[in-house]
Structure formats: C-alpha cells, structure tokens
Amino acid sequence: MTEAAAREVGRLIASHCLAVRVRRLGRVISRIYDAALADHGINIAQLNLLAAIAVGGRARPSDVTRLLDLEKSTLSRNLKRMESLGWVRSDPNVPRRGRFLRLTPAGSRRLIKMRAVWEKAQAMALVELGQRSFTQPRKLLSTLAPSAKTRGAHDGKRAS
Fold it and tell me: Using 50, 70 and 90 to split pLDDT, how confident is the model at 155?
C-alpha cells in the first residue's frame, strides 16, 4: 500500500508540479543562450553577472545575489572564474559597506562585444518559445517575486 501510494503521489507531482515545469523551462531557455554564447567563451549566467554589475557601475555581492536571485555559492563560483579571466575585480572591503564588484575594462569590452550574440540568442528564444511566453513571466516575476522573497525570509528559507 505505501509503495503504491507513494508511486501515485510521485506521478501526481511529476506531472503537475509548477516548480518542476518552471525549472525545466529555465534550463531549456538557458541552453538556447548558452549554445549561442559557447563559441565566445562565456555562458548566460556569466553574461547576466556582467550586466548586473555594469548597471550600477559597481555592486556589492549581496546586491547581485538579490537582483539575480542567486545563492551565494553560485555567485562566488562564477565570480572566481570571471575574476581569473580578468572580467571582474573586487574592490577591497570598506568598513561597514563591504566589498564592491566592478567590471574591468576587459569585462566591459566583453559585455559590449556580446550584445549582438545576446540579441541573436534572444531572437532565437523568442522564435522558439513565442513572444507571449516571455511577456507573461516578466509580469509574473515583477508582481510575485517581492512577496515570495518576503515569505522565504519569514520562514528562514530562501524563496525558490
């Protein structure tokens, strides 16, 4: 009985869980961008980090994790590689303000150079998934993300 019931619940979750569907969709979309960027030695996660840092000219790691909804370990792993490639540098810790991330001139050039490649990947993703597929998640994220993060903070867990 327990095994059969577990199998039934497993099928229900596997076939209807929104979290599974959204995560799978995220991986599909990431593969579209990563395929377009592969020949240029960068992936979409790294390109998004360059963009996030570039927006403000400098950023604290905690700001980047919040903005991109990343785990600290994911940010740390990507930053280590990007620093070794000379795209990002960390300014020394400033008392009560922490350290700041900045793009190096090479990182700025990389970001600018990737614009055309990103635009091509964006167009491919739009064709593959349809324009409406992109509009709805953007609206949902802008309305749901703040409340989901708040709920995660209240129970001591990160919203996913």
Answer: very low
Q: Would residue 152 count as lying in a domain? A: no
pTM: 0.75
Domain that holds residue 92: 34-141
Domain assignment present for residue 63? The answer is yes
Residues in contact with 121: Cβ distance below 8 Å, sequence separation at least 6, in sequence order:
32, 33, 35, 36, 37, 44
Tokens representing 98 are: 């922490």
Q: How many Cβ atoms sit within 10 Å of the Cβ of residue 104?
A: 15
Helices within 57-129 (DSSP H only): 61-68, 72-84, 105-113, 115-129
Greatest CA separation for the chain? 63
CATH code of the domain in which 61 resides: 1.10.10.10
Q: Helices 115-129 and 131-154, interaxial angle, to 10°? A: 100
What is the distance between the alpha carbons of residues 65 and 53, in angstroms, rounded to a whole number?
11
C-beta of residue 100 within 8 angstroms of C-beta of residue 62 = no
CA dist 111 and 23 (Å) reads 26
Q: Note whether 88 and 65 are within 8 A (CB).
A: no
User: What tens digit of pLDDT does each residue of 6-21 get?
Assistant: 999 999 998 888 888 8
